[in-house]
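WARN retry 2 of 3 for item q-0093 after timeout on previous attempt; input resubmitted unchanged.
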Amino acid sequence: MAPPSGCRLGGAGGLPGSLSARTAPAHPTGSPGDTEPGVQVRVTQPEIGTRLLRDPETPADLATIGLEVVVDPPTSEVVWYVDGAPYQVAGYPYSVRWSIRPGEHVIEARLAHTRVGSNRVMTWVFGLGSGGRAMKPSARAHPRL
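OK item q-0093 returned
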């Protein structure tokens, strides 16, 4: 797979194919990690524990990584969440691009209009400070994994 744009390490690009995405609803309809018999939802990109170094020469709007999820059996839409907040609604193949920003982030996907959610994936994005030194993400409170 191609490396994410604007990054020097880790992550992966989005899946090829069409994307039907729009703004996610303001209020989540389910709780993360809820299950439904026979339904599996698993984030495959980024991988758990991915660490990225933000390339300071790449414009912020181009520094992105692909978010990918496997849903079995397939459904019409998933809602992507970043740091507990709705990010984007995506139709099959459910892949979207997320603009990275320094910090620790939790990424997950939920089936639209249900309480079924995926695994939570912790990802770290490091930025470059003055003199080109890597800076650690700022301390942030996150939902428990």
